[in-house]
Amino acid sequence: MGMLGELCPDLLLMDVSLPEQDGIDTMRQLHANSPGLKVLAHSALSAIEYVNSMLLEGAQGYLLKGGTTEELVEAMESVLSGGRYISPVARASIARGYQHTEKRPDGEYIGLTAREREIIRLIAMERTSGEIAAALFVSEETVKSHRKNLMAKLNVRGVAGLVRYAMDRRWV
Description:
With 172 residues, this protein is an alpha/beta fold. It folds into two domains: 2-99, Response regulator (Rossmann fold, 3-Layer(aba) Sandwich), CATH 3.40.50; 114-168, Winged helix-like DNA-binding domain superfamily/Winged helix DNA-binding domain (Arc Repressor Mutant, subunit A, Orthogonal Bundle). Helices cover 55% and strands 10% of the residues. A four-stranded parallel beta sheet has the order 1-2-3-4.
């Protein structure tokens, strides 16, 4: 992030899957440290939680890898002019995700918070509610409430679904 301050770019094209750190966490830090920076997320991942999380954390657009040069130019022009760009496949993913949940977009993006991702990781590491509560300095009831809300938010039926979700994303 040090070079970013020296370069002062107009637009940052950022991969969501970074080798050293979660791209969503990186986006959160970028937005906190450089709130005026325009970021276009670039990823092979189109799942609703990635798209929504990046947009929630401050990205102005979400572009899928493998698109055309024309789409890249359109996305960059849109974001640089103060607009938003979400690739058609990512938009379709958002629409499909909302079909299977009680939540509706209403102009808001539903993504996972850093705390929710942390809880899913700990669940996938076979930690009990008590162990998670102690590690995060919250009550067991708070952990259970998070788990219940996560299952509804991600449209999974049990802890096994949360574990599969974390495994699919290589969070553990």
